[in-house]
Amino acid sequence: MKTDIEIKNDVLDELAWQPNVDENEIGVVVENGTVMLTGVLDNYRKKVAAEEAVKRVKGVKALAGDIQVRYGTSFQKTDVEIAKAIVKAFEWNTAVPEDKVSIEVRDGWVNLSGEVDSAFQKDAAARVVKNITGLKWVNNVITIKQAILPVDVKEQIAKAFKRSADIEADGITVEVHEDVVKLKGKVHSLTEKKAAQKTAYFSPGVYRIENELEVVD
User: Fold this and answer.
1) CB atoms within 10 A of CB 133
2) Most buried residue, 45, 131, 162, 183, by most Cβ within 10 Å?
3) Is the backbone of residue 178 left (phi > 0), alpha (psi -120 to 50) or beta?
4) What region holds the BON domain (predicted)?
5) Each residue of 138-181: pLDDT tens digit?
6) Does residue 84 belong to any structural domain of this protein?
7) pTM
8) Would you say 44 and 130 are in contact if contact means Cβ atoms under 8 Å apart?
């Protein structure tokens, strides 16, 4: 099992490996496998890239991010400009039903609401928004109207895990309780944990997922 010092060094190395992230702008603290990031970045995509980099490090059990985003004057956008950019991005992305998603922007903070048919569509909306210049934060409260279909859901997800090269399916169990899918077991990284959740989202009929997978060395 890695020590906190070893995890911190690996996190710093992974941050340095990212072409659009300056590791010197980010503070890293590790306690019992939980990584805390602090600092101020000039781009929301850098914040996302830094957090994704940490999740790829083996031994990281949880991530607590407190990175702030402050754009320079040349990249600052008004709330109206951000909202228009999001609307256009939704129009170009076939995974997002733009007529079902409401957009609210206040001081660079974006709130997404509405009702869509699947968890995949909800996540797609958030992914599209993350690429918008001027963005400071995304709050995704879109709901899913389709209740989970109990027939074959567990089997579909289990088969999807076995097809994935990024997931050790034997260490994961899938439980279905009414409208909730629970993932339990052990994985070797936050990336694998996230991959399992993402794979489960693609299954037809999935309404909500509780990811209780434990990250172990």
Assistant:
1) 14
2) 183
3) left
4) 3-71, 78-146, 149-217
5) 889 888 776 555 556 677 777 777 777 667 777 788 887 766 78
6) yes
7) 0.50
8) yes
